[in-house]
Amino acid sequence: MAMKSLDPRVNRLGIPEEKSELQPKGMLDQFETYEAFLQVKEGKALEHVGPVHAPNEEMAFLFAKEQYSRRGMFCNALCVVKTENIFATDFTDDGQDVYNTITASPSGEETESFEVFHLMKRGKQHKYAGDVMASSYEDAFVTAKDHHQDAKPVFNVWICKTDHVLSSDEDDRDIWDTLKEKQYRDAIDYRAQDKIKAFKEEKSA
Amino acid sequence: MYGGGNTFEALKGTALADEDPVKLAEFEARINRGEKIEPTDWMPQLYRKQLIRMIEQHAHSEIIGALPEGTWITRAPGFKRKLALMAKVQDEVGHAQLLYSAAETLGKSREQMIDDLITGKSKYSNIFNYPAFTWADSCFISWLVDAGAIVNQIANSKGSYGPYCRALERICAEESFHLKYGHHCVIHMATGTKKQREMMQDAITRWWPPMMHFFGPSDKISVHSEILMRWKVKMASNDACRQQFLDMYVPKIWELGLTIPDENLKKNTETGEWEFSEPDWAEFKRVINGDGPCNAERLAVRRTAEERGRWVRKALLAPKTKYVTPLA
């Protein structure tokens, strides 16, 4: 016997009444995670918006576009980096700048390009600070101190290799243009005060 | 959308006596300063476990809540309503993803959470165990269940856990369209033909009792809940949320000439508090423990999606991947 529902779509699934043996989900059944960074408009820094689960980089990009730039949220550029490929420093406390905990000095070997993200306030999200040339993640952190340390303290730094970043293409910028006829997705499209007023007047008349 | 009435009973392995007193003091001082707690910070087990439970239940509620509303996408009256409802349901599923990710930063994988949902181990908002018989039911959910959810979510977005707050900020921004859309739908029905008015009234009569259950039973003040309030995990009592909801929405229901099926419902002008008949908590318990009209169907639909989607995920799986918890 198939399960009966009010929903014709559920009826079409033909779900048997008796429960089948359920296999628990395997580890990674839902894929590894990628961190998504979004630029709200030209000239603003890329900012971390959150993670997505995806089987590969391209799909991570698509999922991030759906999740974080949907519905008229302003977006000018988006990039994704596999979580595993991001090096995160420790958090500092009480306004201490994480760059001031560094004791090492830069190797000076500029073998690879790295991207640097800063957390300027607890509870907020990491923002893009710039790139550095260095020989390793740790070396990139040390090198970034000279290039990107500012008067304001940085609580936490994320570093990834430039090669590990998948970014939206400048030429594809029109993918962010929202169609005008999608106003039904905005609160402003649902004005109803007139209707309530007319209804009340009719009732009291 | 979100189910209120979280459970806050004590969890196993969370005794404060087992925690490092120095670290605990630092943790509390940080919260007192109004700073957010981030995933890599030290936190007591009670904080971690309670937040996992809360955020996870919230995520499940978004997923399951999409089912009764999704039922009406194909039968929504007119193209514009279909588009809007589809956009709303898509939002709810997106909210679940944001919330699963926030919960993951506390150390429970998304696979494990989804497993716990479909095996019935974790709960979701009880209100979704009721069926949406007519279009008017769908209008009720879009307006008033979402309104109840927003009361909860706005309170929680001022909590202390960074990733949860950030997810909620995004969610609340999107919910503003849901609420307006739902209100618009209800106004259309309530100011329409006699038949439409009757449908809307029937929906309110059907959904009012589960709506009163929505925020959960009165919370007993316990040492446990006091700690969770101090740590900004629990932001408002169930009663306070219910009062706020009644205050904001009962007048809006009444102004449309609709009747709420509780003759004791009124605002006490002296105390400023709403009075109402005590909801049937035995019914609430019965439904939340699995014996509601739609519990079996909701879980069966999720199970089926899980089982029948397995081959797709298998085909996409990269065998060498290793699991890494998201950063924030």
What does this structure look like?
The complex is a heterodimer of chains A (205) and B (328). By secondary structure, chain A is of the alpha+beta class. Chain A has a domain at 29-169. Chain A has helices at 8-13, 57-68, 137-148, 193-204; strands at residues 32-39, 47-54, 77-82, 87-88, 112-119, 127-134, 156-161, 165-167. In chain A, the strands form two sheets. Chain A has a four-stranded antiparallel beta sheet, with helices on one face. A four-stranded antiparallel beta sheet of chain A has the order 4-7-5-6, with helices on one face. The longest helix of chain A is centred in the N-terminal third of the chain and has 12 residues, at 57-68. Chain A is extended. The model of chain A has no long low-confidence stretch (mean pLDDT 89). Chain B is mainly α and 328 residues long. Chain B has a single domain (21-316), classed as Ferritin, core subunit, four-helix bundle (Ferritin), CATH 1.20.1260.10. Chain B is built from eleven helices and two strands. Chain B has a two-stranded antiparallel sheet. The longest helix of chain B is centred in the middle third of the chain and has 29 residues, at 162-190. The radius of gyration of chain B is 21 Å and the shape is globular. The two termini of chain B are 22 Å apart. Chains A and B meet through α1, β1, β2, α2 and α4 of A and α3, α4, α6 and α11 of B.
Question: Largest interface, per-chain counts?
Answer: A-B, 60 and 72 residues
Secondary structural class of chain B: mainly alpha
**Strand coverage percent of chain B:** under 5%
Low-pLDDT ranges of chain A: none
Order of helices and strands of chain B: HHHHHHHHHEEHH
Radius of gyration of chain B: 21 Å
